[in-house]
Amino acid sequence: MNTPDQHRPMKAETILAELNRQRKDMGEDHTDLEWVALHHAFCFLSYKMAEFQKYLDEQSAKGAFDKLED
Description:
Blueprint: H1 12-26, H2 33-47, H3 49-61
């Protein structure tokens, strides 16, 4: 549990794992814009892990992930 002056951290790997799970659950369909969007977002974020982690750290400092359940 975080104290009031701390915010919940978020790892890029956690978000990427969730995007990948959703992408695989949908089944590969190159005609479905939703699948294509998830696929390319996952690929891009995977290639830009350092930048994505920096963004998540900035969002964490603002409390963006505080309400997520464990």
